[in-house]
Write a structure and sequence with these properties.
The chain has about 160 residues and is α+β, with helices and mostly antiparallel strands. The protein has helices at about 1-10, 15-30, 90-95, 95-105, 160, and strands at about 35-40, 45, 55, 60, 70, 70-75, 80-85, 105-110, 115-125, 130-140. A hairpin with a 2-residue loop joins strand 5 (about 70) and strand 6 (about 70-75).
């Protein structure tokens, strides 16, 4: 019975979890003395702008963890990262990205462990008040020194550490 429950959970590869854990460890220790926290997979968000539907990012950096509704956080994370898998790529690049844009997430990383690349998107505003994500940078092993959190310039990130599988 236990094996069945694990099998039914998701069809993502273990590498998906490795990337999440690598980021949480790498960034988390640097945030220890701040109000911000890096949160791994399983943390629920519930936002009015998303009709209070629950969203679970792979990773988020949130400086408003006191804002809650029951077990869900309601504060907007400054940064969200999704690690692609075959099952979630379309959702991560489509509806989920749109939810993050709408609620005001400033920085959105889409990480592909298969290609060893991170796409960094930033949320910007138009004159009419609407917002949009634009691709700020794609980081691969060829420009790996460019891997950097835009919203947290003092935090150090390391490409090889992120993709250590």
């Amino acid at each position: 019975m236990g094996a069945l429950a694990i099998t039914d959970m998701s069809n993502t590869f273990v590498e998906h979890s490795f990337i999440i854990n690598n980021f949480v460890v790498m960034v988390g220790r640097q945030l220890q003395d701040s109000l911000c926290r890096v949160l791994g997979d399983g943390v629920q968000y519930q936002w009015y702008e998303n009709d209070n539907k629950i969203v679970i990012p792979d990773v988020s950096i949130n400086c408003n963890t006191r804002d809650r509704k029951n077990v869900s956080l309601t504060g907007i994370p400054r940064m969200v990262m999704e690690v692609l898998s075959d099952a979630t790529e379309e959702y991560d690049r489509g509806d989920k990205m749109e939810i993050y844009r709408k609620v005001g997430v400033s920085e959105y990383w889409i990480v592909d462990w298969r290609k060893k690349q991170a796409e960094i998107y930033l949320n910007d505003g138009k004159e009419d008040g609407t917002t949009y994500f634009y691709l700020y940078k794609t980081v691969t092993k060829d420009n790996k020194e460019d891997l950097q959190l835009v919203m947290f310039p003092n935090l150090k990130t390391d490409f090889d550490e992120l993709f250590h599988i």
